[in-house]
Amino acid sequence: MEEARERKHGKIARQYFEEGYNCSQSVFLAFGEEYGIEPDLALKLASSFGGGMGRLREVCGAVSGMFMAAGMLYGYTDPKDHNAKTEHYKRIQYLAKKFEEKNGSIVCRELLGLDKKKDSPQPELRTAEYYKKRPCAELVEIAAQILEEYMQAHTFS
């Protein structure tokens, strides 16, 4: 049974993206079962990070979703626990490095080949043409796979 659960998060995240959820929502929601968050709450929490943070084209929404899920799985709660904070930031930097190694950047505009920083707040319609020209579905899948691989190597509580 455990074998069947392995390596599923990337496909789930991609499916959510293809249903119309933004990059961050797709990755964050793909891990919802592991941390028991209500889907509506997960979607609201992650809603601001699509398009590189509200289409500002900064950190990729898939990366932000991966970081949010990592926080839910491994994050710290005690602001005075310097060691836990350090370990978590190391974890986040590791995940970012893995994503960057596979994709060349963690920045939305760089991943999309855009030369402007901000974009219209109006999201593009998800048409067949959209999916052909954007690597986002693949990036969502990759981000979820990276976190899943990390989870397989590191237990969480």
Give a summary of the structure in a few sentences.
The chain is an all-alpha fold. It is 66% helix and 0% strand.
Describe the secondary structure blueprint for this structure.
Blueprint lengths: L1 H4 L3 H11 L3 H8 L1 H4 L3 H8 L3 H4 L7 H14 L7 H22 L4 H5 L15 H6 L2 H18 L4
Helix pairs in contact: 2-3, 2-11, 3-5, 3-7, 3-11, 7-8, 7-11, 8-11
Relevant terms:
157 residues, mainly alpha, 11 helices, 0% strand, disordered N terminus
Give an overview in words.
With 157 residues, the chain is an all-alpha fold. The chain is built from eleven helices and no strands. The chain has helices at residues 2-5, 9-19, 23-30, 32-35, 39-46, 50-53, 61-74, 82-103, 108-112, 128-133, 136-153. Helix 3 (23-30) runs antiparallel to helix 5 (39-46), helix 3 packs parallel to helix 11 (136-153) and helix 7 (61-74) runs antiparallel to helix 8. The relative contact order is 0.20. The model is unreliable at 1-5 (pLDDT under 50).
